[in-house]
Amino acid sequence: MVGNPDPAACAIGLDVGGTKIAAGLVGYASGTVLARRTVPTLPQRGGEAVLSDTLALAEWLMEEADRRDLELQGIGVGVPELVDPEGNITSSHSLAWQDISVQPAFASLAPTVVESDVRAGALAEAMYGAGRAYQLFFYVTVGTGISSTLVQDGRPFAGARGNALIMASSPFSVECSICGEALNPVLEEFASGPALVARYNRHGSRVAERGEDVTTAAEEGEDAAVKVVQSAGEALGNSVAFLVNVMDPEAVVVGGGLGSSGGLYWDSFVSSTRAHIWAENSRKLPILPAAMGADSGLIGAAATVFRNLPATTGAIQATDTLN
Fold first, then answer.
1. Spatial separation of the C-alpha atoms in residues 240 and 187, rounded to whole Å
2. How far apart are CA 253 and CA 152, in angstroms?
3. Is 164 in contact with 158 (CB distance < 8 Å)?
4. Within a 13 Å sphere around the CA of 84, how many CA atoms are in the beta-carbon half?
5. Which residues does 109 contact at the CB level (< 8 Å), separation at least 6?
6. DSSP 8-state secondary structure symbol assigned to residue 317
């Protein structure tokens, strides 16, 4: 973080996920969540209904900022989708917002930045969390999905089209050396939260509904759960080590509900990552849990507004724009 921000400066952070919308007022100086509200997303209702709910949350937080005499700098919206450099949503994996003018809708309220949730979370860690000490680090988030971004000098790398975050969605096509069968494993279908549930439910002694159910069963020593969780952590570590080998970061910061859950998943992941790093002087790089926890999304969304501010800030007029 740069400059000497006004202690009253804040931004609205909206973390729009497939399950819930977490909204909050975030202080610029500290990254503290000053007010919050969470509602279910219910994406099956359609994109317009979700947008309406999210706009209502933004309006409530604007009123809250005014009531507290805070200097509102703008609105940041984080989404679990691909977002191009102009703030256009270019996928519809979790939210049907691809063909909706999301940024202009929020900009009618206040200057607005729309960003992918992984880059927003990475920015939160760069400004306020575990990434503050590093000029070059990888941020990986593991939960319902798995994504990553490289952060250099405090700025998450978006790529030419905003697509530089898909580390776990593409198949790794190989041929089995024993039977000759063509294999197309997808990391997200093996190591994410829903993947743990699906794999465990084929072999476990109980029915799991969430990834946490599987990790809990593993901590209790159930064989099927231990195998699922350990193999998932190992697979994730293999892929993260590949990123380390290609980009040589100073550190790796891991967020998301499953990524920061600790226990066997974390231990297996860290061991696997170090085992697959090729360069000897990289194997001991810091591998750190994200510091923002469950608030990383909304803090990061607000941080996308702060990133665009000059060193000395006042309230931004509603007619200004943020890119």
1. 11
2. 13
3. yes
4. 8
5. 55, 58, 59, 62, 75, 318
6. P
Query: Length of the chain in residues, anyone?
Result: 323
pLDDT digit string, tens, across residues 1-16: 445 567 889 999 999 9
Token output for 108: 């009618």
- C-alpha closest to that of 35 among 66, 5, 7: 66
Q: What percent of the chain has pLDDT over 70?
A: 91
Q: What is the pTM of this model?
A: 0.89
Taking the C-alpha atoms of residue 267 and residue 83, their distance in angstroms, rounded to an integer, is 32
In this structure, how many other beta carbons lie within 10 angstroms of the beta carbon of residue 44? 8
Measured distance CA(316)–CA(66) in Å, rounded: 14
Structure tokens at 236: 């994730």
Instruction: Pull the structure tokens for residue 125.
Output: 């860690």
Q: Which of 27, 26, 246 is nearest to 136 (CA)?
A: 246
> CA nearest 150: which of 162, 139, 161, 141?
139
N- to C-terminal Cα separation, the chain = 18
Q: Name the token pair of 305.
A: 């507004």
